[in-house]
Amino acid sequence: MSLGVLASLAPSVYRRIQLSRAKHRSLAGHSRMAKRLARLLPGYHFDDQVFFKCDNAPFEIENSRRKAFYKLSEVLKARHPLSIQATAAARESISDMQFIAAYRVPFQFSPLVQAHLKVGSFLQSASGVFVTDLDGQSFYDLTGSYGVNVFGADFYKQTMMQGLEKTQSLGPVLGSYHPCVASNAERLKKISGMDEVSFHMSGTEAVMQAVRLARYHTKRKNLVRFCGAYHGWWEDVQPGPGNPMPPRETYTLSDMSERSLEVIRTRKDIACVLVNPLQALHPNTNAPGDSTLVDSSRKAAYDRQAYTEWLHKLRQACTENGVVLIFDEVFLGFRLALGGAQEYFGIQADMVTYGKTLGGGFPVGVVCGKKQWMHRFHAERPADICFARGTFNAHPAVMGAMSAFLDKLETPEIKRVYDGLDDLWNSRVRYFNGAMQTHGIPLQAANMSSVWTLFYTQPSRYNWMLQYYLRIHGLALSWVGTGRLIFSLNYSDTDFEAVVNRFVLAATQMKNDGWWWHAPEITNKKIRRSILKETLFRA
Ligand SMILES: Cc1ncc(COP(=O)(O)O)c(C=O)c1O
Questions:
Q1: Three-class SS of residue 173?
Q2: Distances 247 to 222, 244, 250, 489 between C-alpha atoms, Å
Q3: Pairing of strands 451-456, 475-476
Q4: Whole-angstrom Cα distance, residue 86 to residue 417?
Q5: Is the pLDDT of residue 364 over 60?
Q6: Res. 425 pLDDT band, cuts 50 70 90
Q7: Are 141 and 127 in contact (CB under 8 A)?
Q8: Which end of the chain is more exposed for a tag (fewer CB within 10 A), N or C?
């Protein structure tokens, strides 16, 4: 029976099949199954005997890796004693630190790495494009503070200070507003092209509020997110392993897929579609972290034109079916263009969420939306409300820093930063990739403007080691490692060249130490097969 015939004879069966076909075929598209499997996956780890030759490397390579590993351990300990000591002392008390330490590298390698390659979690200062740890060691900052740092640490030091100055006469008073709240709202309306604004404490909260409003107004329960997209840590936007299942359905559909559009156009239970445009860099895959870097199959490529076309079609599908289109710009807002991703891709969403950098260095979440979606009560049905308050929403210090941030956005100096921004970062990525090729390093970068991801061009189980070599060459990465580099826009050409030179030094050392040795017949597929065997054998 063709799908067309099925649609007329058994529409509910047809809709079910249509939805299944639009869900991403990976486990990420099937959160219940993923959750069940995650519970079954047994843990195992490599001891010193297997760690250096899990790819069947010959003795001299194993030996070279072992020596290099323990030497790296010594270098880190000698250079960063205070930072490492402070981290060890605090780790038992701070749950997040334990989690981060455990998930820097694939789990098989994690215990030995945690025991020997110590990374300090404390810093004492930041300036220019550098951060400095408790031992006075400085690193080029490639972490971007989870994306908050768009314009450089000094910029935010100023906005934080100016924000406190602007609002210090009101101090901690909450419930009533400092006058800068009103001007922030006006300016955000202009930037976003929306009618109303609400203030929250984090990006996660802003997304929760946008989704809650969409459900309230559409009277539909379910939401669509695209496979791999991050929208905060709340379960409705992160169903699957690690979280309780949401009480309502979250459909995790394939990004950039006609089948997904068909579902969004036709189903009557979808309140909203969430889009995180950062996914354009790696559609349908999670934010790439080194803890999942088990082989070299990580790939990324950003096609601005194709993604723009997709967003236009998505806009159209949402409009046709009364589905609220929410642009989640918590990460990308103000990084790509003054008017954010909406301006950059030429799309007007129904609601847009901001956060991170907009707080001028303080924590924040913001929802901007069209009037019909933003109001929280119906005059004719007074008991039917959509409640959203929060003690610290519109906190004076945050609003003051946001006001200072928005002031700075209006200066010619900052406006100039956006001129030719993509061209600048695209040429930098070409320079980086050329340097890696010239030096015979199996490493390439893909970028969406100043947000980069690295991938590896030959099969290996040890790519994650690069983060430690980069560290000893003075490059600071966030805990996800080489999967995400975030440059602040104050990186000069000289700073950038220095970073590339350090990459060359670090990667050459790693290569010479034997980590990228591989048997001629090895492929990524064979690596994954051998991991499966290890898992089954040890289960
Ligand atoms: C696109 C996006 N949405 C939401 C969030 C959650 O923001 P927060 O960490 O402030 O809760 C993030 C955080 O990385 C994000 O990147």
A1: coil
A2: 10, 9, 9, 41
A3: unpaired
A4: 38
A5: yes
A6: very high
A7: no
A8: N
Q: Six-digit token pair at 335?
A: 């990084």
Please give the pLDDT value at position 260: 97
Q: With cut-offs at 50, 70 and 90, classify the pLDDT of residue 539.
A: low
**28-42, 54-68, 222-236, 421-435: which has the minimum mean pLDDT?**
28-42
Q: Whose CA is nearest to atom 7 of ligand 1?
A: 203
Q: What is the 505 CA–ligand 1 centroid distance (Å)?
A: 34
Looking at 80-179, list the stretches that DSSP marks H as alpha helix, in order from N- to C-terminal side: 81-91, 95-102, 110-116, 153-167
Q: Tokens standing for 358? A: 């907009």
Strand order in the sheet with 475-476: 123-127, 130-133, 138-141, 475-476
- Ligand 1 atom with the shortest distance to the CA of 202: 10
Ligand 1 centroid – CA 274 distance (Å): 13
What contacts 57, CB < 8 A, 6 or more positions away? 65, 514, 517
What band does 243 get if pLDDT is binned at 50, 70 and 90?
low
Which residues, 6 or more positions from 153, have their beta carbon under 8 angstroms from its beta carbon? Answer: 126, 127, 128, 129, 131, 141, 488
Residue 250 CA to residue 234 CA, distance in Å, equals 12
Q: Phi/psi zone of residue 56: left (φ > 0), alpha (ψ -120 to 50 degrees), beta?
A: left
What number does the ligand 1 atom closest to the CA of 329 have?
1
What's the gap in Å between 147 CA and the centre of ligand 1? 9
Residue 466 and residue 121: Cα distance in Å, rounded?
18
Environment class of 321 (CB within 10 Å of its CB; exposed 0-12, middle 13-18, buried 19+): middle
**Confidence band, pLDDT 50/70/90 cuts, at residue 246:** low
To the nearest 10 degrees (0 to 180), the angle between helices 81-91 and 95-102 is 120
Secondary structure class of 139 (helix, strand, coil): strand
| Nearest partner of 155 among 141, 168, 167, 169, judged by Cα | 141
- What is the Cα–Cα distance from 68 to 312, expressed in whole angstroms? 51
**Six-digit token pair at 234?**
């709340």
The DSSP line for 223-290 is EEEETT----S-GGGS-STTSPPPSS-EEEEPTT-HHHHHHHHH-SSEEEEEE-GGGGGSTTS----G
Of the listed ranges 29-43, 366-380, 453-467, 496-510, the least confidently predicted one is: 29-43
User: Which residues have C-beta atoms less than 6 Å from ligand 1?
Assistant: 146, 202-204, 207, 230-232, 276, 328, 330-331, 355
Beta bridge partners of 475: 140
Cα–Cα distance between 310 and 304 in angstroms, integer?
10
Report the DSSP pairing between strands 196-200 and 365-369: antiparallel
